[in-house]
Fold this sequence. Notes:
seven-stranded mixed beta sheet; 2 helices; S-AdoMet_deCOase_pro-enz; S-adenosylmethionine decarboxylase proenzyme; AdoMetDC_N; pyruvate; S-adenosyl-L-methionine
Amino acid sequence: MEITQSLGFDSKIKAERYSDKLDCNQRNDNIVLLPSTGFSSSDERFDHFIKRDGLTFAGVHLIIDLWGASRINDIEHIEIALKQCVKEAGATLLNIHLHHFAPNGGVSGVAVLAESHISVHTWPECKYAAFDIFMCGEAQPYKSVDVLKMAFKPDIINIGDHRRGIVA
C-alpha cells in the first residue's frame, strides 16, 4: 500500500480532480493548505482550544483519500467502521446518518460527534472513498486512520492534515 501523508498546516496535499465524465484514472497536481488567521489566544473565549507545538487552534481536520478500497458500497460495513473510528479516537458519537445511492452503490454520510464530525463519500465504480475527520478537544483523529486502513484495505491512502481555527 502506498501512503502519502502531509503533516502540518502548511503542507502540500496530493489533490485528485475529475472531468465531467468522472475519469477515475485522471489525477492532477498538488495544492497547498495555508494557515488560518484569527484572534489572540489570550482571549478567554479560546480556553477550550487545543494548545500544541506552540499553536492554539480549534481542532485537527484530516482529509483522507482511499484508492483501491474495498467494501465501500456496503453501508453496514461503513457504519461499523465509523463507530470504530469514533471509539479509537476517544470521541463522543451523537448520531450517524448514511445514504446509499443507486444505481452505482455509492454511500455518503456523516457521524456527528460532540467533538465535530467524520464524513464519508464513496465512488465504488472508482474504488475511491473520501473521508473528512474533524475533531477538537482531547479527541485523537489520527487513531481513526488505522481503522480505515483495516476496514477498507486501500491500495493507496493520501492523508492531509489541517489545523483549523489557528489563533495568534
